[in-house]
Amino acid sequence: MIQIQDLNKSFQGLQVLKGVSITIEDREIYGIIGQSGAGKSTLLRCVNGLESCDSGKIVINGTPVDVKDKTSLRNLQRRMGMIFQNFNLLERLDVYDNIALPMKFWGMKTNTPESKEKIMGLIRLVGLEDKVHSRPRELSGGQKQRVAIARALVLDPQFLLCDEATSALDPEITKGILALLQRINEEMGITVIVVTHQMEVVKQICCRVAFLSNGRVLSEGRPEEMFIHPEFPEIKSFLREGSELLPDTGVNIQLFFTGEGSEDPVVTQMARELNKDFSICWAKLEDFRDKVYGSLVLNVEEEDRDRVLEFLTRTKVQWEVLD
Ligand SMILES: Nc1ncnc2c1ncn2[C@@H]1O[C@H](COP(=O)(O)OP(=O)(O)O)[C@@H](O)[C@H]1O
Ligand SMILES: [Mg+2]
To answer: What's the whole-model pTM score?
Structure first.
Protein backbone atom coordinates (compact mmCIF):
# COMPACT_ATOMS: atom_id res chain seq x y z
CA MET A 1 0.00 0.00 0.00
CA ILE A 2 1.22 3.50 -0.84
CA GLN A 3 0.16 6.42 1.36
CA ILE A 4 1.00 9.87 0.06
CA GLN A 5 0.47 12.41 2.83
CA ASP A 6 0.30 16.18 2.38
CA LEU A 7 3.08 16.27 -0.19
CA ASN A 8 4.56 19.63 -1.21
CA LYS A 9 7.21 20.20 -3.84
CA SER A 10 8.64 23.33 -5.46
CA PHE A 11 11.11 23.93 -8.28
CA GLN A 12 12.93 27.26 -8.02
CA GLY A 13 10.15 28.83 -5.98
CA LEU A 14 7.37 27.47 -8.22
CA GLN A 15 5.12 25.20 -6.19
CA VAL A 16 4.32 22.16 -8.33
CA LEU A 17 2.67 19.88 -5.73
CA LYS A 18 0.37 21.47 -3.15
CA GLY A 19 -0.63 19.25 -0.24
CA VAL A 20 -1.25 16.09 -2.26
CA SER A 21 -2.71 13.20 -0.25
CA ILE A 22 -3.65 9.91 -1.89
CA THR A 23 -3.82 6.31 -0.68
CA ILE A 24 -3.26 3.55 -3.20
CA GLU A 25 -4.40 0.11 -2.07
CA ASP A 26 -2.59 -3.12 -2.82
CA ARG A 27 -3.48 -4.78 -6.11
CA GLU A 28 -5.54 -1.94 -7.51
CA ILE A 29 -5.03 -0.04 -10.74
CA TYR A 30 -4.94 3.60 -9.69
CA GLY A 31 -5.10 6.45 -12.19
CA ILE A 32 -3.68 9.95 -11.85
CA ILE A 33 -5.13 12.21 -14.53
CA GLY A 34 -4.83 15.89 -15.39
CA GLN A 35 -3.67 18.44 -17.92
CA SER A 36 -0.09 18.67 -19.01
CA GLY A 37 1.88 20.53 -16.32
CA ALA A 38 -0.50 19.51 -13.50
CA GLY A 39 2.35 17.83 -11.61
CA LYS A 40 1.61 14.17 -12.42
CA SER A 41 5.14 13.15 -13.38
CA THR A 42 6.62 15.01 -10.43
CA LEU A 43 4.24 13.15 -8.10
CA LEU A 44 5.26 9.80 -9.60
CA ARG A 45 8.94 10.68 -9.32
CA CYS A 46 8.44 11.53 -5.63
CA VAL A 47 6.74 8.16 -5.10
CA ASN A 48 9.69 6.19 -6.48
CA GLY A 49 12.28 8.42 -4.83
CA LEU A 50 13.72 9.92 -8.04
CA GLU A 51 12.70 13.29 -6.62
CA SER A 52 12.67 14.44 -3.00
CA CYS A 53 9.73 16.41 -1.65
CA ASP A 54 9.88 19.63 0.42
CA SER A 55 7.42 18.41 3.04
CA GLY A 56 4.91 15.64 3.55
CA LYS A 57 5.39 11.90 3.70
CA ILE A 58 5.30 8.84 1.49
CA VAL A 59 4.65 5.63 3.39
CA ILE A 60 5.07 2.34 1.57
CA ASN A 61 3.83 -0.85 3.22
CA GLY A 62 3.81 1.06 6.52
CA THR A 63 7.40 2.35 6.24
CA PRO A 64 8.09 6.03 5.51
CA VAL A 65 10.40 6.56 2.54
CA ASP A 66 13.68 8.23 3.45
CA VAL A 67 15.28 9.44 0.21
CA LYS A 68 18.48 10.39 2.04
CA ASP A 69 19.17 6.77 3.04
CA LYS A 70 20.74 5.34 -0.14
CA THR A 71 20.22 1.67 0.76
CA SER A 72 16.54 1.99 1.60
CA LEU A 73 16.06 4.12 -1.53
CA ARG A 74 17.65 1.46 -3.72
CA ASN A 75 15.50 -1.23 -2.13
CA LEU A 76 12.43 0.90 -2.70
CA GLN A 77 13.27 1.45 -6.36
CA ARG A 78 13.82 -2.27 -6.79
CA ARG A 79 10.22 -2.87 -5.74
CA MET A 80 8.96 -0.33 -8.27
CA GLY A 81 9.04 -1.01 -11.99
CA MET A 82 8.56 2.03 -14.19
CA ILE A 83 7.59 2.62 -17.82
CA PHE A 84 7.54 5.87 -19.81
CA GLN A 85 6.07 7.43 -22.92
CA ASN A 86 9.36 7.18 -24.82
CA PHE A 87 10.16 3.58 -23.73
CA ASN A 88 13.81 4.39 -22.75
CA LEU A 89 15.28 1.26 -24.38
CA LEU A 90 18.99 0.96 -25.19
CA GLU A 91 19.44 0.84 -28.95
CA ARG A 92 22.68 -1.17 -28.81
CA LEU A 93 21.02 -4.03 -26.88
CA ASP A 94 18.53 -6.55 -28.25
CA VAL A 95 15.16 -7.31 -26.65
CA TYR A 96 16.57 -10.00 -24.35
CA ASP A 97 19.42 -7.83 -23.07
CA ASN A 98 17.21 -4.77 -22.62
CA ILE A 99 14.93 -6.84 -20.40
CA ALA A 100 17.92 -8.31 -18.54
CA LEU A 101 19.44 -4.89 -17.83
CA PRO A 102 18.01 -4.33 -14.32
CA MET A 103 19.36 -7.77 -13.30
CA LYS A 104 22.84 -6.73 -14.51
CA PHE A 105 22.49 -3.48 -12.60
CA TRP A 106 21.81 -5.48 -9.43
CA GLY A 107 24.82 -7.74 -10.07
CA MET A 108 22.72 -10.77 -10.95
CA LYS A 109 23.86 -13.28 -13.60
CA THR A 110 21.67 -13.11 -16.69
CA ASN A 111 22.77 -16.33 -18.40
CA THR A 112 21.94 -18.87 -15.69
CA PRO A 113 19.08 -21.27 -16.51
CA GLU A 114 16.86 -19.55 -13.91
CA SER A 115 17.53 -16.08 -15.30
CA LYS A 116 16.95 -17.27 -18.86
CA GLU A 117 13.69 -18.91 -17.85
CA LYS A 118 12.63 -15.73 -16.04
CA ILE A 119 13.42 -13.47 -19.01
CA MET A 120 11.92 -15.84 -21.58
CA GLY A 121 8.79 -16.12 -19.40
CA LEU A 122 8.41 -12.33 -19.50
CA ILE A 123 9.02 -12.27 -23.25
CA ARG A 124 6.18 -14.79 -23.63
CA LEU A 125 3.98 -12.75 -21.27
CA VAL A 126 4.34 -9.65 -23.46
CA GLY A 127 4.04 -11.68 -26.67
CA LEU A 128 7.45 -11.03 -28.27
CA GLU A 129 8.73 -14.61 -28.70
CA ASP A 130 9.65 -13.91 -32.31
CA LYS A 131 11.60 -10.73 -31.45
CA VAL A 132 14.03 -12.02 -28.79
CA HIS A 133 17.10 -10.83 -30.68
CA SER A 134 15.64 -7.81 -32.46
CA ARG A 135 16.99 -4.33 -31.75
CA PRO A 136 14.58 -1.58 -30.64
CA ARG A 137 14.76 0.12 -34.06
CA GLU A 138 13.25 -3.02 -35.60
CA LEU A 139 10.19 -2.82 -33.34
CA SER A 140 6.94 -0.85 -33.52
CA GLY A 141 5.99 1.56 -30.72
CA GLY A 142 3.66 -0.98 -29.12
CA GLN A 143 6.34 -3.67 -29.24
CA LYS A 144 8.90 -1.30 -27.68
CA GLN A 145 6.50 -0.59 -24.83
CA ARG A 146 6.06 -4.36 -24.36
CA VAL A 147 9.84 -4.70 -23.98
CA ALA A 148 9.82 -1.85 -21.45
CA ILE A 149 7.03 -3.58 -19.51
CA ALA A 150 8.96 -6.87 -19.41
CA ARG A 151 12.07 -4.99 -18.25
CA ALA A 152 10.04 -3.26 -15.51
CA LEU A 153 8.88 -6.67 -14.24
CA VAL A 154 12.21 -8.52 -14.27
CA LEU A 155 13.00 -7.82 -10.59
CA ASP A 156 9.51 -8.95 -9.44
CA PRO A 157 8.29 -5.51 -8.36
CA GLN A 158 5.32 -4.95 -6.09
CA PHE A 159 4.35 -1.79 -7.98
CA LEU A 160 4.35 -0.84 -11.64
CA LEU A 161 4.42 2.93 -12.29
CA CYS A 162 3.37 4.05 -15.77
CA ASP A 163 4.02 7.63 -16.87
CA GLU A 164 2.02 8.38 -20.06
CA ALA A 165 2.86 4.85 -21.19
CA THR A 166 0.36 4.88 -24.05
CA SER A 167 0.44 8.57 -24.99
CA ALA A 168 2.64 7.98 -28.04
CA LEU A 169 0.61 5.00 -29.31
CA ASP A 170 -2.47 4.88 -31.53
CA PRO A 171 -5.82 3.79 -30.03
CA GLU A 172 -5.74 0.12 -31.12
CA ILE A 173 -2.18 -0.42 -29.83
CA THR A 174 -3.11 1.45 -26.64
CA LYS A 175 -5.93 -1.04 -26.01
CA GLY A 176 -3.50 -3.94 -26.29
CA ILE A 177 -1.03 -2.37 -23.86
CA LEU A 178 -3.81 -1.56 -21.37
CA ALA A 179 -5.12 -5.13 -21.59
CA LEU A 180 -1.59 -6.33 -20.83
CA LEU A 181 -1.34 -4.04 -17.79
CA GLN A 182 -4.69 -5.36 -16.58
CA ARG A 183 -3.48 -8.96 -16.96
CA ILE A 184 -0.27 -8.16 -15.05
CA ASN A 185 -2.39 -6.64 -12.29
CA GLU A 186 -4.81 -9.55 -12.08
CA GLU A 187 -2.51 -12.52 -12.66
CA MET A 188 0.66 -11.31 -10.92
CA GLY A 189 -1.04 -9.26 -8.20
CA ILE A 190 1.03 -6.17 -9.03
CA THR A 191 -0.33 -2.75 -8.02
CA VAL A 192 -0.39 -0.48 -11.07
CA ILE A 193 -0.27 3.33 -11.00
CA VAL A 194 -1.20 4.94 -14.28
CA VAL A 195 -0.35 8.59 -14.92
CA THR A 196 -2.07 9.94 -18.03
CA HIS A 197 -3.79 12.89 -19.64
CA GLN A 198 -6.14 10.49 -21.50
CA MET A 199 -9.51 9.73 -19.88
CA GLU A 200 -9.92 6.73 -22.20
CA VAL A 201 -7.00 5.07 -20.42
CA VAL A 202 -8.53 5.65 -17.00
CA LYS A 203 -11.95 4.45 -18.18
CA GLN A 204 -10.55 1.25 -19.61
CA ILE A 205 -8.53 -0.05 -16.64
CA CYS A 206 -8.58 2.06 -13.47
CA CYS A 207 -10.43 1.10 -10.28
CA ARG A 208 -9.96 4.59 -8.84
CA VAL A 209 -8.63 7.86 -10.13
CA ALA A 210 -7.37 11.18 -8.76
CA PHE A 211 -7.80 14.33 -10.83
CA LEU A 212 -4.75 16.54 -10.41
CA SER A 213 -5.03 20.20 -11.32
CA ASN A 214 -2.31 22.74 -10.76
CA GLY A 215 -0.57 20.56 -8.17
CA ARG A 216 -3.70 19.79 -6.17
CA VAL A 217 -6.01 16.77 -6.02
CA LEU A 218 -9.35 18.29 -7.08
CA SER A 219 -11.31 15.07 -6.95
CA GLU A 220 -10.85 11.37 -6.26
CA GLY A 221 -13.10 8.39 -6.83
CA ARG A 222 -14.29 5.75 -9.24
CA PRO A 223 -13.81 6.81 -12.88
CA GLU A 224 -17.51 6.46 -13.70
CA GLU A 225 -18.47 8.67 -10.74
CA MET A 226 -15.99 11.33 -11.73
CA PHE A 227 -17.22 11.18 -15.30
CA ILE A 228 -20.93 11.29 -14.59
CA HIS A 229 -20.88 13.64 -11.61
CA PRO A 230 -17.82 15.86 -12.12
CA GLU A 231 -17.43 18.03 -9.03
CA PHE A 232 -15.83 20.97 -10.83
CA PRO A 233 -16.39 22.63 -14.22
CA GLU A 234 -12.73 22.14 -15.14
CA ILE A 235 -13.06 18.38 -14.63
CA LYS A 236 -16.22 18.34 -16.71
CA SER A 237 -14.72 20.21 -19.61
CA PHE A 238 -11.61 18.03 -19.44
CA LEU A 239 -13.46 14.72 -19.31
CA ARG A 240 -16.46 15.20 -21.53
CA GLU A 241 -16.51 15.81 -25.22
CA GLY A 242 -18.96 16.62 -27.97
CA SER A 243 -20.64 19.63 -26.38
CA GLU A 244 -19.42 21.93 -29.17
CA LEU A 245 -21.56 19.94 -31.62
CA LEU A 246 -24.85 20.54 -29.80
CA PRO A 247 -27.67 22.78 -31.08
CA ASP A 248 -27.61 26.32 -29.67
CA THR A 249 -31.39 26.62 -29.53
CA GLY A 250 -33.72 24.78 -27.15
CA VAL A 251 -32.49 22.86 -24.10
CA ASN A 252 -29.84 20.14 -24.28
CA ILE A 253 -30.27 17.43 -21.68
CA GLN A 254 -27.74 14.69 -21.22
CA LEU A 255 -28.97 11.30 -20.00
CA PHE A 256 -26.66 8.66 -18.52
CA PHE A 257 -27.77 5.05 -18.57
CA THR A 258 -25.76 3.55 -15.74
CA GLY A 259 -26.77 0.38 -13.94
CA GLU A 260 -30.19 0.69 -12.35
CA GLY A 261 -32.89 1.79 -14.76
CA SER A 262 -30.57 1.70 -17.75
CA GLU A 263 -32.74 -0.90 -19.49
CA ASP A 264 -35.90 1.22 -19.22
CA PRO A 265 -37.17 2.69 -22.51
CA VAL A 266 -37.13 6.18 -21.02
CA VAL A 267 -37.01 8.23 -24.21
CA THR A 268 -39.90 6.54 -25.98
CA GLN A 269 -41.96 6.50 -22.77
CA MET A 270 -41.37 10.20 -22.37
CA ALA A 271 -42.35 10.90 -25.96
CA ARG A 272 -45.57 8.98 -25.50
CA GLU A 273 -46.47 10.34 -22.07
CA LEU A 274 -45.76 13.97 -22.97
CA ASN A 275 -47.06 13.49 -26.49
CA LYS A 276 -43.93 15.07 -27.93
CA ASP A 277 -41.15 14.11 -30.32
CA PHE A 278 -37.54 14.63 -29.27
CA SER A 279 -34.39 14.69 -31.32
CA ILE A 280 -31.33 12.87 -30.11
CA CYS A 281 -28.42 15.06 -31.09
CA TRP A 282 -25.49 13.14 -29.60
CA ALA A 283 -25.01 9.63 -28.25
CA LYS A 284 -22.12 7.47 -27.17
CA LEU A 285 -21.33 4.24 -25.38
CA GLU A 286 -18.88 4.79 -22.54
CA ASP A 287 -16.71 1.81 -21.58
CA PHE A 288 -15.61 1.57 -17.97
CA ARG A 289 -13.48 -1.56 -17.47
CA ASP A 290 -16.05 -4.36 -17.71
CA LYS A 291 -19.12 -2.08 -17.75
CA VAL A 292 -20.67 -0.20 -20.64
CA TYR A 293 -22.70 2.92 -19.94
CA GLY A 294 -24.77 4.71 -22.53
CA SER A 295 -25.00 8.46 -22.72
CA LEU A 296 -27.12 10.62 -25.01
CA VAL A 297 -28.15 14.23 -25.40
CA LEU A 298 -31.75 15.18 -26.15
CA ASN A 299 -32.69 18.56 -27.53
CA VAL A 300 -36.11 19.76 -26.34
CA GLU A 301 -37.98 22.99 -26.87
CA GLU A 302 -37.63 25.63 -24.18
CA GLU A 303 -41.39 25.55 -23.44
CA ASP A 304 -41.21 21.78 -22.69
CA ARG A 305 -38.29 22.10 -20.31
CA ASP A 306 -40.23 21.84 -17.02
CA ARG A 307 -42.42 18.92 -18.12
CA VAL A 308 -39.40 17.00 -19.41
CA LEU A 309 -37.37 17.56 -16.27
CA GLU A 310 -40.35 16.59 -14.13
CA PHE A 311 -40.66 13.36 -16.14
CA LEU A 312 -36.95 12.56 -15.88
CA THR A 313 -36.98 13.10 -12.12
CA ARG A 314 -39.47 10.24 -11.87
CA THR A 315 -37.19 7.84 -13.77
CA LYS A 316 -34.04 6.13 -12.57
CA VAL A 317 -31.77 7.58 -15.24
CA GLN A 318 -29.15 10.15 -14.32
CA TRP A 319 -29.51 13.40 -16.21
CA GLU A 320 -28.14 16.87 -16.45
CA VAL A 321 -29.08 20.06 -18.29
CA LEU A 322 -26.11 21.23 -20.37
CA ASP A 323 -25.37 24.93 -20.51
N1 LIG B 1 13.13 19.37 -12.82
C2 LIG B 1 12.31 20.43 -12.93
N3 LIG B 1 12.77 21.67 -12.78
C4 LIG B 1 11.95 22.75 -12.85
N5 LIG B 1 10.63 22.67 -13.09
C6 LIG B 1 10.10 21.45 -13.27
C7 LIG B 1 10.90 20.26 -13.20
N8 LIG B 1 10.10 19.19 -13.41
C9 LIG B 1 8.86 19.69 -13.61
N10 LIG B 1 8.85 21.03 -13.52
C11 LIG B 1 7.66 21.89 -13.64
O12 LIG B 1 6.67 21.38 -12.78
C13 LIG B 1 5.37 21.47 -13.35
C14 LIG B 1 4.71 20.10 -13.37
O15 LIG B 1 5.42 19.26 -14.27
P16 LIG B 1 5.09 17.73 -14.45
O17 LIG B 1 5.14 17.06 -13.13
O18 LIG B 1 6.01 17.21 -15.50
O19 LIG B 1 3.59 17.78 -14.97
P20 LIG B 1 2.74 16.70 -15.80
O21 LIG B 1 3.48 15.40 -15.73
O22 LIG B 1 1.41 16.69 -15.15
O23 LIG B 1 2.67 17.21 -17.20
C24 LIG B 1 5.58 22.09 -14.71
O25 LIG B 1 5.31 23.46 -14.61
C26 LIG B 1 7.03 21.84 -15.01
O27 LIG B 1 7.55 22.83 -15.84
MG1 LIG C 1 4.18 14.20 -17.25
So the answer is: 0.90
